[in-house]
Amino acid sequence: MSSATESTPLSVSQAMALAKNTLESCTVTLVGEVSEVSVKPGYKAAYFTVKDTAASMPCMMWMNRFRSEGIDLRVGQLVQLTGRFTVYAPKGRMNFDVFSLSAAGEGDLRQRVADLARRLSAEGLMEASRKRALPGMPRTIGLVTSPHGAAVHDVLRTLRRRWPLSNILLAGVMVEGVNAPAEIVEGLRVVVEAGAEVVLLVRGGGSFEDLMPFNDERLARTIARCPVPVVTGIGHEPDTSIADMVADRRASTPTAAAEACVPDQRELALTLDASADRLQAQATVRLADFTRRLDALASRPVLSDPLQAIARFRQPIDLVSGRLTRAIPGALAADSAALAAHHMRLRAIGSSLTSMRVENLTSSQSRLSTAGRSLQTRFDEAWQMRAARLGDLSPLSVIGRGFALVRDDTGALVHSIDTVSPGTKVSIAVADGTIDAQVTATTHDEKTTVSWEEKK
User: Fold this and answer.
1) Among 290, 308, 325, where does a domain finish?
2) Distance CA 60, CA 42 (A)
3) 3-class SS at 103?
4) CA pair distance 403, 396, nearest whole angstrom
5) Average pLDDT over residues 147-163
6) Same domain? 160 vs 259
7) What is the CATH classification number for the domain harbouring 37?
8) Is residue 192, in this structure, part of any structural domain at all?
């Protein structure tokens, strides 16, 4: 500016024109925190304000440019802007016309993570249908984490407390820094090839930047392709990493991940004890039922006193035998009388018939005689059969086959060795007489006697 200009005062409009020409002629890149956002349907531009600790500035970005950037502006977000100042002289106001917009610092990292998450989700890597169930009682567990720090000790302590039967394969890796993703991928491969049935991928808390290795695309795809389930417990922050999203199970802390991976031995012991109690109670009920049914069978007269059961049928059998004895001679006599009468009639008729009729009558007489003899034979066989059955049912018949009946000194039958004792006098009925004896000792027979009803 010349000395003449310096000595000549400018009008307000001249000053604003000077400012406008100076500011609008240059392109500026700046960084600021978003404090206000106004993006409404129908607007031709997006309006927002950026600030730092000492100043704030209104910004405007044409809607076609804003949408092409694909950024969801939020209050508090750190952004990097490129554009130029615009001065509105009538009102003395200044705006920043934004040409390009991007997240800055952590905001840029978050934007990249969000973009990767959307892309992997579109490929189906985060679908619930592809997530696998964890083994109920794993024998070998892979643990991929830093060998230092609290996380590894928390996980090992939890696994040993809850499920000490498992073997733990520890792959010590870096969990922070640019080399961490490659080491974690290698650690997953090592524990899986060593026979792990499930893999724990854990680390302690940290900032968003510290957790960036778990937002790595190669690691995410390795977890998705892992042949065994993967459980993550990454940090204590509310942020969810991409590794969490593609894992089969996600826990908020390393300890929670270990608890999700194995059962609690104390809970299993309580469950087993309860099951054993139920089985014992059911067995007791069944045994009592079988005992009751066995006692009921043993108390039946046919088993408790078989001779008395036989005696119940003796009288009806005697009655039937008597009837048969009386009926057979009478029937035979009646048949004989009938035959004699027929014979008399035949002889009377024969005298008046021709020789031919006589021969026919003789033949008829022969057939009648044969029938009479057959009837006599059937009656004899029936009588003998019934007599034999009566003999089989008689206790004397049982004795005749070599068995014996033992009675105590009161005359009662001895059914068990429990009803006598050494010194008891007994009488033994055999086929041809009675033997008087005295019990010297008793011995239990270990063989089990099974009733005919139980053999059915």
Assistant:
1) 325
2) 15
3) strand
4) 9
5) 94
6) yes
7) 2.40.50.140
8) yes
Domain shared by 163 and 174, yes or no: yes
List % helix, strand, coil for the chain (3-state, nearest 5). Answer: 50, 20, 30
Is the full-model pTM beyond 0.85?
Answer: no
Q: CA–CA separation, 205 vs 346, rounded Å?
A: 132
User: Which tokens in the block code for residue 198?
Assistant: 């499930």
* SS3 call for 402: coil
Same domain, 220 and 177: yes
Two structure tokens written together for 174: 């870096």
Residue with tokens 């008395």: 308
> CA 59 to CA 74: how far, in whole Å?
14
Cβ distance 156 to 141 under 8 Å?
Answer: no
Same domain? For 246 and 278 the reply is no
Confidence of residue 343 (pLDDT cuts 50, 70, 90): confident
Range 412-440 average pLDDT:
86
- Give all strands (DSSP E) within 195-284, no chain letters: 198-203, 230-234, 249-251
pLDDT at 244: 96
Kind and range of the H or E element at 269? helix 265-298
Residue at 357 is within a domain: no
Domain co-membership, 197 together with 298: no
pLDDT value, residue 28: 92
Is residue 317 domain-resident? yes
User: Coil, strand or helix: which one is 158?
Assistant: helix
Q: In terms of residue numbers, what domain contains 270?
A: 266-325
Could you say which DSSP state residue 262 is in? S
Task: With CA atoms as reference, report the closest residue to 134 among 233, 260, 14.
Answer: 260
Of 174, 186, 252, 258, nearest to 212 (Cα)? 174
Separation in Å, CA 225 to CA 136, 247, 360, 382: 21, 10, 112, 92
Using one digit for the tens of pLDDT, what is the confidence trace for 353-411?
Answer: 656 665 776 777 788 888 878 888 888 888 788 777 776 666 666 676 777 888 888 88
Q: How many CB atoms lie within 10 A of CB 436?
A: 9
The answer to the question of residue 60 being in a domain is yes
Residue 149: what pLDDT?
Answer: 85
Distance CA 74, CA 50 (A): 11
Asked whether residue 25 falls in the same domain as residue 90, the answer is yes
pLDDT digit string (tens) for 174-210? 999 999 999 999 999 999 999 999 999 999 888 887 8
**Number of domains into which the chain is organized:** 4
Q: Mark whether 320 and 259 lie in a shared domain.
A: no
pLDDT at 452 over 50: no
Average pLDDT in the chain: 85
Which value, to the nearest 10 degrees, does the dihedral of the CA atoms of residues 432, 414, 302, 444 take? -110
Find the mean pLDDT for residues 94-104: 90
Same domain membership, residue 151 and residue 133: yes
